[in-house]
Amino acid sequence: MDFPENSIRSAGKKGSVEVITGSMFSGKTEELIRRLRRARFAGLKVEIFKPSLDNRYSETRVVSHDEKSIVSTPVDHATAILLLSENVDVVGIDEAQFFDISIVDVCNNLADKGIRVIVAGLDMDFLGKPFGPMPALMAVAEYVTKVQAICMRCGELATYSFRKSSEDQVVVLGEKEKYEPLCRQCFNKAINKKPLHG
Ligand code: ZN
Question: Hey, which residues are catalytic here?
């Protein structure tokens, strides 16, 4: 089931987990910001968090690629989100793939308390493997939305984040100079061409 657009308030009172996921450049953060803005318009108290690791653009803002941004709090560990979410109706979490597995308990705990939790993150790493806690978050979520980018090579819908550089650790922060969104066919061709992973 997709996200229930017409029940912003009741979703907040009941508590639930929503996951927005997909490849890089798929509009995850834009969709997170859109939902959080609508919750604010509805008069709800909203707090936004991101891992302090992700400081590509700014220490204190969730910034999407189209530069619509929203002020967020960087946290070193997922459990800090629990402490910082007193008297909040809606909690947004961006770049959730960089948290450890404890983010799952944190999200469940918040939702159990009646908080609407909206989590955005990459579903797969640069090798096309499920990324960190995202599979578990998708399992416990009431609502999962997968968003797609456009394949840079053929124009189909893209679900993979292909790393153009040759670094082989999982976490390499970067933007269009380092990654390109690809569809399954183009991704498979691209990784077979690279001797490092071929
Ligand atoms: Zn393609």
Answer: 95
